Amino acid sequence: MKRKSHYPYWFVFPAAVIFTTLFLVPSVASLWFSFTRWDLFHAEYIGLENFVQFFKEPFLVQGMVNTVIFAFVTSGMKTVLGLLLAVLLTSGIFAQGFLRILVFFPVLVSTIGVGITFTRLMHPTKGAINIALAHMGIDGPGWLTDPSLALFSVALVDVWKGVGLATLIYIAGLASISPEYYEASRIDGATRLQQFWRVTVPLVRPATVTVITLSLIGGLRSFDIVWAMTKGGPGFSSDVLASVIYKQYQAGFYGLSTAGNVILFALVALIVIPLVSWMNRKEVEQ
Amino acid sequence: MKLKYSGLVAAAMVAMAGAAQAEVTLSVLIDSGADTEAVWAALTEAYSAKNPDVSFDIEVRPGGAEGDNIIKTRLATGEMTDVFTYNSGSLFQALNPTETLADMSDLPAQERVLDSFKPVVSAGGKVYGVPIGSAMGGGIFYHIPTYEELGLSVPTTWAEFMDNNAKIKAAGKDAVATTFGSTWTSQLFVLADYFNVQAQVPDFADRYTANDAKYASTPAAMRGFEHLQEVFEAGYMNADFGAATYDEGVLYVSTGEAVHYPMLTFAIGAMSQNNPEGLKEVGFFAQPGDDASSNGLTVWMPGGVYIPAASPHVEEAKKFVDFVATVEGCDIQTATNGFQGPYLVKGCEAPADIPRAAADMMPYFEADGRTAPALEFLSPVKGPALEQITVEVGSGIRGAADAAALYDQDVEKQAKQLGLPNW
Predict the structure, then answer these.
(1) Which residue of A has its CA nearest to B403?
(2) Contact B24, B83 (CB under 8 A)
(3) What is the average pLDDT value for chain B, to the nearest integer?
(4) According to the model, what pLDDT value does residue B365 have?
(5) How far B373 CA lies from chain A's nearest CA (Å)?
(6) % helix / strand / coil in chain B, to the nearest 5?
């Protein structure tokens, strides 16, 4: 039996045109250009040489390790801090609404602006942070100039900027927990801490999954905050995958950087597709 | 005198031709910096005064790799301004000039431009630009009052330079202004050492381009990286060396907060804009090598002024560019930022009163065999990661030998991407 659509097929046309010109054509073109030596004017087919070169890139391995460190550190801190802030901000604390706005505000500010501001604040000798530390008799480190610290300083700023969103999701999650659970546990003599571990944490789990997924994907593809603050430096010590790719592009190695993007695409897909399908399964089970 | 006269005639012709045309606004893209912005404001103002029908719209771009990216992308997408400035030499070659730029071989100005400049803005036998600014030296600025106070003399060997640094440090001052906040400034010890490299290995540039000579296996070439390491290990830098910027470095050496600053002489322009009083107290010397008998200066050609082939106003733009390379153009530059070095336009002369640092540089140009062009004007090969690698060496993250080997790898990548033979 032939199923008849309610709408004529040409209704698809506008969406198809947009999808083809803006997504399909560039994707196929980028795959092609990743096999070429390309200076924006001429493209010469060179086979897999770009991919070989990209994997030979001395800073690629460090960039990949840094990307994973950055994603897990920021995701972990956003989850923990987000939950704690959400508990605090739903506890009926003084000026609760105002404090919620305060925590969420950095999310609304431009990442580049935040990056530039914190670069100033973290200046080793003239920055407000180290000046304040000096008044307390502490010799502050070079937050962004010490190679072993730079990546973590950037991660810290990323957490400051992003924790508001995690808090918001957790506040919504906490609101959906029925107060009866708390009442029942209180009658059973549970302490506040026990309530938190035994009631809040398990029941807020859907929010936790959302926060972890969003922040992990965000962390894996992070670029703007890193570029605004350190440009991957000092040297290569805070390079992430995206900044390594961007530097190839800056140098005019367009074919090479396109190959890097193809690799980044494959990598993100490799992590995100299993994660999403696993989450969907969990949701069905629940 | 005759040359100056012909310049005037050309300027007059430009003025007359301009008057016959309809009103036009030329867009101009320049690199950022108080000194460049001041020069272009003065040049365009002077031109508009003569040609009231031509007005200008000046746009500013960042320097370094960020700027390279903007220039290439805008040229490739046909979004370039009518006139723009950019480096000459290897970076110019990477613009694919034969296809993207307007041919300026028959511009009247080419009669006035010195022959030594033309090759660095030429491709396929055609000339695509005229010089803006003056020839520059890469070397070391120093704070004269501190030198006098400590009884130091200008070093002619690297060992003497390091001795001076030791005395400066002992006196409780920062010896070498280091400004890794502007990453590109970290390359100076390596790039400005090229006079010393070619003094010892005269065929280095050719063999380097042909994939025959390497930094890691040429001891003379590796010295630049070693210098960075030595300065770091001795702790001669300012406390904020990792975050300080180029502008701060210029300020440090002109106020005496730091006593040396390795930099190109175009910093004279920044000093005259940001600290004109301090400019009088700053001298300059070539980066010394190991041998006092061959002491000379590594020289950079000025950047060029170019017109994209796709500009809708090529003819009007050419007349303006022609004006830039006149004696009047030089005089406007000198009046705005002071004299910074020899111009590449015939008839342009130094005024009687020139900044001390520029005066210190002139003797190198006047003697035979005391200057050598920087490597980027002799070879198209220059690795893009040099500035990160030199930051690593200068911050103690990586040793000199390791860094030289890593840079060789970076260079190989660039040569392959350019599709050079033998790589």
Answers:
(1) A235
(2) no
(3) 90
(4) 87
(5) 23
(6) 50, 15, 35
Residue A284: pLDDT band (50, 70, 90) is: low
Q: Which residue has the higher pLDDT, A249 or B177?
A: B177
> Each residue of A149-165: b (16+ CB within 10 Å) or e?
bbbebbbbbbbbbbbbb
Q: What is the mean pLDDT of residues A263-277?
A: 80
Q: Using an 8 Å CB-CB cutoff, list chain B residues near A235.
A: 388-389, 391-392, 395, 397-398
Which of B61, B75, B413 is the best mutation test for A, with the most CBs of A within 10 A?
Answer: B413
At A32-57, the pLDDT tens digits run 999 988 877 778 888 888 888 888 87
Residue of A nearest to B245 (CA): A123
Yes or no: say if A123 and A80 are a contact pair by the CB < 8 Å rule: no
pLDDT exceeds cutoff 50 at B1: no
Average pLDDT over residues B226-241: 95
Q: Count of alpha carbons within 13 Å of B87, Cβ hemisphere only?
A: 20
Residue B194 CB partners (closer than 8 Å, separation 6+) = B138, B298, B372, B373, B374, B375
Contact call for A236 and B100, based on CB within 8 A: no
> Are the beta carbons of A252 and B96 separated by less than 8 Å?
no
Alpha-carbon span B372 to B368, nearest angstrom? 10
Order of strands across the sheet that contains B24-31: B54-61, B24-31, B83-86, B303-306, B130-132
At residue A186, does pLDDT exceed 70? Answer: yes
Please list every residue in chain A whose beta carbon sits closer than 8 Å to the beta carbon of residue B73.
40
Q: Which of A37, A226, A236, A256 to mutate to test the interface with B (most CBs of B within 10 A)?
A: A236
Check if A233 contacts B (Cβ < 8 Å). yes
DSSP codes of every residue in B67-114: HHHHHHHHHHTT---SEEEE--THHHHTT-HHHHB---TT-GGGGTB-
Put simply, whether A202 touches B (Cβ < 8 Å) is no
What's the pLDDT score for residue A286? Answer: 55
Residues A78-94 as b/e (b if ≥16 CB within 10 A, e otherwise) read: bbebbbebbbebbeeee
Structure token pair of residue A217: 């994907």
The token pair at B230 is: 């030595």
Cα–Cα distance measured from residue B134 to residue B157, given in angstroms and rounded to the nearest whole number: 27
Residue-wise pLDDT for A133-172, tens only, equals 999 988 889 999 999 999 999 999 999 999 999 999 999 9
| Inter-chain touch A144–B242, beta carbons under 8 Å | yes
pLDDT for B22 equals 67
- Which residues in chain B are contacts of A39 at CB distance < 8 A? 94, 96
Do the Cβ atoms of A36 and A255 come closer than 8 Å? yes
Task: Compare all CA atoms of chain B with the CA of A44 and give the residue at the minimum distance.
Answer: B419
> Is the predicted pLDDT of residue B422 greater than 60, yes or no?
yes
Lowest mean pLDDT of A208-212, B55-59, B320-324, name the range.
Answer: A208-212
Hey, are the CB atoms on A125 and B68 less than 8 Å from each other?
no
Rounded Cα distance between A226 and A161, Å, is 13
Set of chain A residues whose Cβ sits within 8 Å of the Cβ of B417: 37, 251-253, 255-256
Closest-CA residue of chain A to B77: A40
